[in-house]
Amino acid sequence: xxxxxxxxxxxxxxxxxxxxxxxxxxxxxxxxxxxxxxxxxxxxxxxxxxxxxxxxxxxxxxxxxxxxxxxxxxxxxxxxxxxxxxxxxxxxxxxxxxxxxxxxxxxxxxxxxxxxxxxxxxxxxxxxxxxxxxxxxxxxxxxxxxxxxxxxxxxxxxxxxxxxxxxxxxxxxxxxxxxxxxxxxxxxxxxxxxxxxxxxxxxxxxxxxxxxxxxxxxxxxxxxxxxxxxxxxxxxxxxxxxxxxxxxxxxxxxxxxxxxxxxxxxxxxxxxxxxxxxxxxxxxxxxxxxxxxxxxxxxxxxxxxxxxxxxxxxxxxxxxxxxxxxxxxxxxxxxxxxxxxxxxxxxxxxxxxxxxxxxxxxxxxxxxxxxxxxxxxxxxxxxxxxxxxxxxxxx
Length: 395
Prior knowledge:
nine-stranded mixed beta sheet, 395 residues, 21% strand, disordered C terminus, alpha/beta
């Protein structure tokens, strides 16, 4: 049953006449929200819901507190609990909805990935007939969602058949990523951003498509993405010091985020003497936890990563898989606690290392990033994680 605060938020929503843009997906929704809000602020007033407001109750509380007039509201909608997406979407009545992807997240609460896809679809079903759905064409689940909608559907991806697509992608290590975005009608824009993964190129595509459909000129979108934007904390942000780069991907740890982060690290191969991958426990994947960690080990065994530092109760499962596949040729360190991992890293880091730290709710992996940043500062380096200009990155 909806509580009184939620009912009050529904009544208040009627008086908010500006459009709401909602973002959902198994991975990337926080980054897309931040990118889109950053673009829209260049031309108008934007209410960006806080990073933690993605459940129906949290959204209702924040919505009821909006006091000043806005041109847009941008928020994300989570689907960790069945029914949440439908309730939140009914409350906000979005005029635009973006679905980034569907993956193996929240399997603790769903019978399978198809059920997760259905939960994301609830947001699209709340769109008005004049609403716009923006979907990732390269994800099989989001691509199929468009076939079920009667309104306007736009796709983004890496294929030229998408309404917005990216090509000429160049991963430049600490210098970020360069790529070209094409939109229907033949217009193209070359962009270079402080991004370090292909997943974030997709996120930039989603934000670009949404801004373009809202009437923002391409030049403003390009300038916004290239200057002043920093990836949200824990979502792939880079900290750089002389001789040391640290990639912070500690927000969560799912199979999808794991593949994204390993590929991000590999993009630094030619800029590093060693690649060090630090991983906590993958969460919310139900009875698949041990199997997924074993699969993670087999995957790491084939990747050009020099050292794997595995933290938590399933570290041994991944370590055993790596050893079985490589004959112990790859360096693997297993740690019971975050503190053990911090100690090992401080004692073993060398000049030229690139370290990526992947998250996990049961281990405070962000503490490892904080410790590494302190270590880099103590070593005489200068963190540039809050400086969004690519050309200021220390080499």
